[in-house]
């Protein structure tokens, strides 16, 4: 059971209905690495007056932090309509209280990622969150020559953080590339299809101007578990395998469910 602290919501940004970023006061949270997750918790049925009932009434879930450690901590969340916690998180407004774990966890970090020339940060949906944190942290630029973010979503409205990522593309000209893919509509400047098929067809590498190879690349995968499984299969055909401390590889993953 995590050690909980009570924090306040500072800001709420809605990207599109049900897809949002909440920023909370992070002053009580211990230092963590970009890519790690914290638990958020709430009492969707109301906080019990009786202390003995608090633990059983609390609903908590892990969330990747979308910002490096600091006084403001950001989470990028999608409302799962029949979910237990997210409909409640969706209704939080600035000034509201939310419980957060004091200590972060997780091994989906640059520290646990093997060296390579290029790092591919591949996500579906809110799986983009840890990459926003990594892209805001200077360490990534000391470790890798090229950084490529691939974001796959259903609709163009779901393409959160685009302005920030395009600003990085300008600042780090030639070293950073954002590739976006939509599955349920077409839009200029984006690819159409699911990420694994777009890797197999070569469209993602053509858009990035860079190849995914076992010799040059490390690939981080985050989000929908079915995408992770398909990508492991696709990359396996390129002799790329999951990175383990005792058996080094090129793939590091974070499974959201
Ligand atoms: C390490 C880790 C980090 C995570 N980070 C994030 C994050 O940064 N942002 C985020 O929105 N979620 C994240 N999740 C998922 C999150 O923990 C919850 O599972 C999710 O918010 C649903 O909670 P719920 O109580 O509303 O739904 P539940 O009642 O728990 O229903 C869960 C179901 O919702 C679906 N689902 C869960 N998460 C997602 C998602 N992100 N996108 C699409 N469908 C989903 C799946 O079908 C899953 O079986 C993360 C999960 C893990 C394990
Ligand atoms: N705007 C929003 O994002 C929004 C708002 C409110 C509520 N919700 C709810 O939130 C939940 C999650 O929606 P989400 O769109 O964020 O997440 P998602 O269902 O994981 O979809 C994100 C992207 O992953 C793709 N994908 C799914 N399976 C894949 C696979 N096997 N391989 C590769 N790619 C795959 C999807 O393609 P496909 O389109 O082909 O499935 C989509 O482009 C749903 O319950 C949704 O109703 C979403």
Keywords for this structure?
six-stranded parallel beta sheet, 257 residues, alpha/beta, 2 domains, binds NADP nicotinamide-adenine-dinucleotide phosphate, 12 strands, Rossmann fold, Elongation Factor Tu (Ef-tu), domain 3, binds flavin-adenine dinucleotide
Protein model, in words:
The protein has 257 residues and is of the alpha/beta class. The protein has 2 domains: 4-101, Elongation Factor Tu (Ef-tu), domain 3 (Beta Barrel), CATH 2.40.30.10; 110-255, Nucleotide-binding domain of ferredoxin-NADP reductase (FNR) module (Rossmann fold), CATH 3.40.50. It has helices at residues 54-57, 86-90, 129-135, 139-143, 162-171, 195-200, 203-208, 225-236, and strands spanning 4-16, 19-25, 37-42, 59-64, 72-78, 97-101, 118-124, 146-153, 176-182, 191-192, 217-223, 251-255. A 6-stranded antiparallel sheet has the order 4-3-6-1-2-5. The protein has a 6-stranded parallel sheet with strand order 10-9-8-7-11-12, with helices on both faces. Strand 11, helix 8 and strand 12 (251-255) form a beta-alpha-beta unit. The mean pLDDT is 97. It binds flavin-adenine dinucleotide and NADP nicotinamide-adenine-dinucleotide phosphate (NAP). NADP nicotinamide-adenine-dinucleotide phosphate (NAP) binds at residues 16-19, 78-81, 124-125, 152-154, 158, 183-184, 194-196, 224, 226-227, 230. Flavin-adenine dinucleotide binds at residues 37, 61-64, 75-78, 80, 83-86, 106, 125-126, 129, 254, 256-257.
